[in-house]
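== Polypeptide entry ==
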Amino acid sequence: MEFLRPKRPSLSLDMAPLIDIVFQLLIFFMLSSSFLNPALKLTLPKAQIHDLKEPQQIIVSIDQTGKVFVNRSQVQMSDLKSELSRRLTQDSKKSVHVRGDKEMAYKYFVQVMDLARQAGAKQVNIVHEDVR
């Protein structure tokens, strides 16, 4: 007597799509890595005078008592928004750098950040000391 067993479906994985994807990734990375180095090797001319003028940074400093300074000149917190607006019109990057004493109250930091945004700052950076 012979027993008939039902055929089990084969559990094989089709490798063709996987190979296609790997091949496309290989082509993509080969092409994109060729764009990293410029195609033309140029020797640029040298000049005697360099334009060393750097854009004026807007630095807002807050001491531990809450006094606010904009680039070394003291400003009242109520006048900070108008002072920053005036300086930001001359700045192409529209960035403000905020420096604060480590002992200052957090509320001063939040107020300065908020006023800088209201004045039109697109970028507000926090300045800190490097640990070395």
User: Anything to note?
Assistant: The beta strands are 58-62, 68-70, 73-75, 95-100, 123-126. The longest strand covers residues 95-100. The helical segments are 16-34, 80-88, 106-119. The first helix runs from residue 16 to 34.
